[in-house]
Specification:
Layout (H helix, E strand, L loop, with lengths): L5 H11 L8 E3 L1 H7 L2 E5 L11 H9 L3 H5 L2 E4 L3 H12 L4 E6 L4 H9 L3 E5 L2 H14 L2 E2 L6 H17 L5 E5 L4 H13 L4 E7 L4 H8 L22 H10 L2 E5 L1 H15 L5 H13 L8 E5 L7 H13 L8
Length: 329
């Protein structure tokens, strides 16, 4: 595992503070009644770009040399990471080139371009990373979405905020793509509050971390089939797998239908519209059930809201076609 410490995350928090939003953590009566334990929501989707990703992007860029920044920033992304790098580049007066995929939501492509980035569309993640290697060889400064200690340290600042606002936290649930966010958050929380439990969740068809944990090594997924595109990392990395092995209590895997159903539940009852990758944290909480103690304090991280009404309509129609239902309580 690459070296990463609580001190790195603490330093990142000071570094990125002028550039990111300190998102609120608020109690949720609806979720507390549903789950039978005290629940608070970390409203991380209120970040600029509608996800946690600017934390890692800013921390990485701000630790680069002036020469590295001047060469131009490069990222590969299915959506949120690319938007974050584009936003950070604009805020810092730098240029950015973002490689996205033909399957990337048009809204994400448009957002990255609106921040001033050049966006190239490639057929697949494999093609995208191959092109990135070529561009990096030409001189671009590549920012990996999760296989980078500075990026992970930036994402981990979320964990420090949770413990500052809710020092009695007993459980945290976060979704997993490449594992950078949950790895940084888990390190920050478990090093400061060892008794707290951190639970990860993935969707079926985007479960690179659970497969890697089961195998004890990195497993590359042949294809990403989940509709939760922002969880669609083809593989985790040594850094994030090591953090998961050390700090996570468990990683749950839930079907797309549950993620969409809970997306709708959250819209109906918590009055927030988030993406499936964030809503699946509620699916995980439902599965944990009795493992969540009535006297505990569960924090659910709603990490992203890269959703349009058109996408919601498609997801809901798909759920209905598959015979899915959701609990209206």
């Amino acid at each position: 595992m690459n070296d990463l410490s609580l001190a790195d995350i603490t330093a990142a928090a000071k570094r990125v503070a002028p550039h990111v939003i300190r998102t609120p953590l608020l109690p949720s009566r609806a979720l507390s009644e549903l789950l039978g334990t005290r629940v608070s929501i970390k409203y991380e989707f209120l970040q600029e770009t509608s996800s946690f990703k600017p934390r890692g992007a800013f921390n990485k860029i701000l630790t680069m040399s002036g020469e590295e920044r001047a060469r131009g920033l490069l990222a590969v992304s299915g959506g949120n990471h690319g938007k974050a790098v584009a936003f950070a580049a604009r805020a810092l007066g730098l240029s950015a080139r973002i490689i996205m995929f033909e399957s990337t939501a048009p809204s994400a492509v448009a957002a990255a371009r609106a921040y001033g980035a050049q966006v190239d569309l490639l057929p697949s993640p494999a093609a995208g990373f191959a092109r990135a290697r070529e561009l990096e060889a030409e001189g671009y400064s590549f920012i990996h979405p999760y296989a980078d200690p500075e990026v992970v340290a930036g994402q981990g600042t979320l964990g420090l905020e949770i413990l500052t606002d809710a020092p009695d936290t007993t459980d945290v649930i976060a979704s997993i793509g490449g594992g950078g966010m949950i790895g940084g958050v888990a390190l920050a929380i478990k090093e400061r509050r060892p008794a707290a439990r951190v639970w990860g969740v993935e969707t079926v068809g985007a479960d690179a971390m659970s497969q890697a944990l089961a195998a004890g090594k990195i497993v590359e997924l042949a294809t990403i089939t989940s509709i939760a595109a922002t969880l669609g990392a083809p593989a985790v990395c040594a850094l994030t797998l090591g953090l998961a092995q050390r700090y996570l209590n468990d990683v749950l895997v839930r079907p797309d239908a549950e993620a969409v159903a809970d997306l709708i539940w959250l819209l109906d009852h918590a009055k927030v519209l988030v993406e499936p990758a964030a809503a699946v944290t509620l699916s995980a909480a439902r599965q944990l059930g009795a493992r969540l103690t009535p006297g505990g304090h569960l924090v659910i991280i709603l990490c992203g809201a890269s959703m349009s009404m058109a996408e919601l309509a498609v997801f809901r129609k798909q759920l209905e076609m598959e015979g899915g239902t959701y609990d209206p309580r």
